[in-house]
Amino acid sequence: MLRRQLTDAKDVIGRIQAAAELAKTAKRANIEAVVEAYAKEGFWGVRMNFAKILGDANTQAAIEGLVRILDIEQDPQVLMWVFDAAGSYRNQEIKEAIGRRLQGNLPYEARRAAFSAMGLQRQNADWDALKAGTRETGFQGIVQRGAFTGLASTRKSKAVDILLEQSQYGMQDNRVRRAIVNALADIGQGLEKARREEVIERLEDLLRDPCWSVSWQAVRGLVTMKAVRAIPAIEAYKNAQSAQLQVFIDKFISRMQDEDRSDGSAVKKQLEDLTEKLRKLEDTVQKLEAKLEPASNGGGGDE
């Protein structure tokens, strides 16, 4: 009944509901039925939802179906949804299918989504393609935004260096820099302490950026990173904003403080500070011992 509804239902909601229920079964035959229905579906809105359903299915059959769809879909309204769905999977065939589409001509929103999906292949992502994408200037920097987002999604250390450099004032169009700041906050969440602090410091510096939309994105980035130590800098930023924005910023700060108390971040920071002080103390003691050791060993051979 569901397979018949998938293709024969006269209303779009009926066809979408059938696809969703078939995908929930995780059976290959049912997933393949959704893919076959996608190839025959004439309305872009239904295909968009079919792609999302396949992206959520989490089966090998869904991966194979999306690879096929990536090769055949041409509608600009649907393509970005297909790339978003493909980005749900880290898979060599998916990576190759995305790469094939990036080699051709794509509408700018679809190309942005393709770069984002490529980045979600993590360590297996095509780094050279992403780097090249960061230089593709065009309408409102949309493609570049996707490429920089993709770089951050790879979680590679060298992506941090690029994002830190390109986030500086004047390096990119401000619309692109907003995406770079967001990407910095995204990748910064998973960095080790020293690199994380480097990202937080850059976001704090960007609170003074001449472009308001970039500085506002820096506030949101610090909230994303739960950078409690940056609250004084955010408070200073807040004082120069309108009353309406101050209300939002107060909510951001309150949320950061609540999360800090609930997840024990404050205690963790105190422990880290104490550990660092202990390490420095041990280093000092070792240096003193090294200086005293020659004096205790030398000049006493006749005694």
Q: What is this entry, summarized?
A:
By secondary structure, the chain is an all-alpha fold. It is built from 17 helices and no strands. The chain is elongated and about 85 Å long.
* CATH H level, superfamily name of the domain at 1-89: Leucine-rich Repeat Variant
- Total number of β-strand segments? 0
Largest sheet: none
Q: Mean pLDDT score, rounded? A: 91
The CATH topology of the domain at 1-89 comes to Leucine-rich Repeat Variant
Helix content: over 70%
Query: Structural class from helices and strands?
Result: mainly alpha
**CA(first)-CA(last) distance:** 103 Å
CATH top level of the domain at 1-89 is Mainly Alpha
Uncertain parts: 296-303
What's the helix-strand series?
Answer: HHHHHHHHHHHHHHHHH
User: Which geometry do the CA atoms define?
Assistant: elongated
- If helices are DSSP runs of H or I spanning 4 or more residues, what is the number of helices? 17
